[in-house]
Amino acid sequence: MRSDAGENQARILFAARQVFAEAGEDVPVTRVARRAGVSVATLYRRFPTRDLLIAGVHARQWEECLTVHAELLQSPDPTRALRELVQRLCACQVSDKGYTRAYVDAVIAGRGLDPERLATDRLVTRLLHRAQTAGALRPDLTVADFRLVIAGNQGVITAAGRDAEVASRRYVMHMLRSFHV
Questions:
Q1: Cβ(36)–Cβ(57) under 8 Å?
Q2: Which of 36, 111, 43, 96 has its CA nearest to residue 65?
Q3: 15-28 b/e with 16+ CB inside 10 Å = b?
Q4: Confidence at residue 93, expressed as pLDDT on a 0 to 100 scale
Q5: What CA–CA distance (Å, rounded) separates 31 from 174?
Q6: Residue 105, strand partner residues
Q7: What pairs with residue 180 in β-bridges?
Q8: pTM of this prediction exceeds 0.85
Q9: What pLDDT sits at residue 95?
Q10: CB-side exposure of 137: number of CA atoms within 13 Å?
Q11: What is the rounded distance in angstroms from the CA atom of residue 109 to the CA atom of residue 151?
């Protein structure tokens, strides 16, 4: 790939991530092209379909998620790591309307993003097990409870409107307290 083509591709992915986060993935690609400073034709040369553009953005975001997963698994305090995972994901639900919607749909309903959903399930299962073994979390908690928190947070965000960020943080705080013994 020529260097200018690579730069265009990187700009398009960066712009698409910003636009999708602000408005969701249904926005016209012309908006992405405009934000990237490229023509629509250039965008389509790099990403012939909307699905490929979305997949390119998701791939980069998932790489970031895997880095976070690795950090959390290394934490000596599994309870804190699980709390951080829930807080980060719920904060992303507020700030990123694109990938987060797809990721949350996958985590909650099992639709799409199968490798991502399964990796998240494994991470949550390991952190839960470690925290429960240490006696820090209720022994009846499961991955399904984690999914309920994420689903509930989406409802809080929708209902809260402009106050979504504050309402989400408050909801997450209450839910995380309910996890403890």
A1: no
A2: 96
A3: bbbbbbbeeebebe
A4: 84
A5: 38
A6: none
A7: 137
A8: no
A9: 81
A10: 26
A11: 9
For residue 116, pLDDT beyond 80? no
Residue 14's Cβ-side half-sphere holds a number of Cα atoms within 13 Å equal to 10
Return the amino acid letter for 56: G
Burial 48-66 (b: 16+ CB within 10 A, else e): eebeebbebbbeebbeebe
Q: Which two three-digit tokens encode residue 85? A: 């995972």
CA distance 4 to 6: 5
Q: Which two tokens stand for residue 181?
A: 């013994």
Residue with tokens 């797809």: 102
pLDDT tens track for 40-91 = 999 999 999 988 898 888 777 778 878 888 899 999 999 999 999 999 888 8
- Tokens (6 digits) for 66: 């895997």
Tokens encoding 65: 């998620």
Residues 175 and 149: beta-carbon distance below 8 Å: yes
- Average pLDDT score over residue span 79-107: 81
Three-class SS state of 98? coil
Domains of the chain: 1-48 (1.10.10.60), 57-179 (1.10.357)
User: Residue 38: helix, strand or coil by DSSP?
Assistant: coil
The secondary element (H helix, E strand) that includes residue 148 is: helix 143-160
18 or 168: which carries more pLDDT confidence?
Answer: 168
